[in-house]
Design brief:
The complex is a heterodimer of chains A (about 270) and B (about 240). Chain A is an all-alpha fold. Chain A is about 70% helix and about 0% strand. The chains are: A mainly alpha (about 270), B alpha/beta (about 240).
Chain lengths: ~270, ~240
């Protein structure tokens, strides 16, 4: 019997839905948190009343810029946090060892452990955009042909990053601090809440190394000013190269991490 | 190694090195958990693995379950090597890990079994029917829809056994399957295990339970300090 990929994906989603929905209060606080953060950035946007030059390529206003940053940044933070948390949880409860004695490949177990978090991030993205339009009167000018490839490549790049982080977590067990630093640097150089043009010139070129930068730069332009595929070609290219590199790196890292944890007999250690 | 045996080990050895602390110096202490273990278990055979704590019983089961790799030697399950073909090994084994926490605590017993059934590649409907039958056989029907976190130690263990046999594996690797069970539930477990041993496969059961070894196993293998003791009983 070989596990069926679609059924497996559904089983992981069902498992995490059953688990997460058992924490009922969490849903209410998540909703408050989500709307609350939008209010903060709306207020900041109102403070920044003039249209800074650095935002002109994204339509000029701060709030829509931050809104897309928050929405897309959710995926990035999942790849740097949630994946690793799931792995660590599975290690501490012993479920990882139990899962790894089944015919389902370890890489699939790691990858599918993050599906639920991606679905939640997608739901959050929709809510962010909806609340932005309905409550804060944000106007989008969407170019679907440009946004679609950028969204797909972003998803691949973020999932691969998640696998990479999970692989590291499997080996070093306590990687929260490293993931926190990576998240901070990604936020700064990816242009999550401010344009990278504001960074000091000496460190600014580092943003070319961060996939989130290509994702946010391209998607902001495709969603806010209706940039065409040719106008965001640079972002698509940068993101494509990052995605391919990250997938290869993640594949190698997961294989090595699973081999190493079996060799060190540390699957059940944490 | 030959595919004629259900389980065969050849000089199977495993050394553990103690993890190093920050700023620690000097050589790392290493422990020989298993030392050149040679074992052959025939098809249809059930073998009890006995020995004091730290003898290497759980390590042997983990090596056979492919969650730990050997330092030296090899083992084959139905002809598949744990070193070179661990994926094939995982397709034919059912494991009780000896860790009764290894479930999703906020899911019910039935939900847990259905999830692991999917990992084993079972069709959801087959998985459901089989899980319901097993829960009944193990006296867990009433607790099927109860969260795992509310299970007693004995219930957790029985759910672990249900998970191990859910996909009707040909080879069973069981670590202390009757620890913390009362007499009634122990009897249920033994009945189920007796019925689950495939004539084409085998069962290797690590246990301190002398009664289990006597009533279920055709042979007893004693491990001492990582080696098979010379006087291993044969029934």
């Amino acid at each position: 019997m070989r596990p069926h990929l679609f059924r497996l994906a559904t089983a992981f989603v069902r498992r995490d839905w059953l688990n997460e929905s058992s924490y009922r209060a969490m849903f209410i606080f998540e909703a408050i948190n989500l709307v609350g953060s939008l209010v903060i950035f709306f207020a900041i946007g109102e403070l920044v009343s003039e249209r800074p030059d650095t935002l002109v390529r994204y339509g000029g206003e701060y709030f829509p810029f931050a809104l897309v940053g928050l929405a897309i940044g959710g995926y990035s933070s999942i790849s740097l946090g949630a994946f690793a948390n799931r792995v660590r949880q599975a290690q501490t409860t012993g479920t990882l060892e139990a899962m790894l004695t089944t015919p389902t490949p370890g890489g699939i177990i790691l990858l599918f452990s993050g599906i639920w978090d991606y679905l939640v991030a997608t739901f959050r993205l929709c809510v962010y955009l909806l609340v932005g339009v309905v409550l804060f009167d944000v106007r989008f000018d969407v170019n679907v042909a440009a946004a679609a490839p950028l969204a797909l490549l972003s998803l691949i790049a973020f999932a691969a990053t998640g696998m990479l982080v999970a692989a590291v977590m499997l080996v070093i067990k306590r990687g929260e601090a490293a993931a926190g630093v990576a998240s901070l640097l990604t936020g700064i150089f990816g242009g999550l809440l401010f344009p990278v043009a504001l960074l000091p010139e000496s460190i600014r070129p580092l943003h070319y190394l961060v996939p989130l930068y290509y994702s946010l730069d391209g998607l902001r332009r495709a969603l806010l000013v209706g940039a065409s595929p040719s106008e965001v070609a640079g972002s698509i290219f940068g993101l494509g190269v990052s995605a391919v590199a990250l997938v290869v790196l993640a594949w190698v890292a997961v294989r090595l991490a699973l081999w190493q944890t079996r060799a060190a007999a540390s699957i059940a250690q944490y | 190694m030959s595919a004629e045996w259900a389980i065969e080990t050849l000089d199977l050895s495993r050394t553990f090195q103690e993890p190093r602390r920050l700023f620690a110096r000097g050589p790392r202490r290493s422990i020989n958990a298993l030392d050149a273990v040679n074992l052959q278990i025939g098809r249809g055979e059930c073998v009890a693995l006995v020995g004091p704590n730290g003898a290497g019983k759980s390590t042997l089961l983990r090596l056979l379950a492919t969650t730990v790799t050997p330092t030296r030697g090899d083992a084959c399950i139905l002809g598949y090597s744990v070193r070179s073909n661990p994926a094939a090994v995982r397709r034919v084994i059912g494991v009780v890990t000896g860790d009764d926490r290894s479930f999703f605590w906020r899911l019910t017993g039935l939900e847990n079994l259905l999830f692991f059934g999917q990992l084993q590649g079972l069709h959801p409907a087959t998985s459901h029917a089989r899980a319901v039958t097993l829960l009944e056989q193990l006296g867990l029907s009433d607790a099927a829809d109860q969260r795992f976190s509310g299970y007693s130690a004995g219930m957790r263990l029985r759910l672990g056994i249900a998970r191990a046999v859910l996909h009707s594996p040909r080879v069973l690797l069981l670590d202390e399957p009757t620890a913390s069970l009362d007499l009634r539930h122990r009897a249920q477990v033994l009945d189920l295990l007796r019925a689950s041993i495939s004539p084409d496969g085998a069962a290797l059961i690590a246990s301190h339970d002398a009664g289990l070894a006597a009533s279920l196993a055709g042979r007893i293998v004693r491990l001492e300090q990582g080696k098979v003791a010379p006087k291993t009983a044969r029934r």
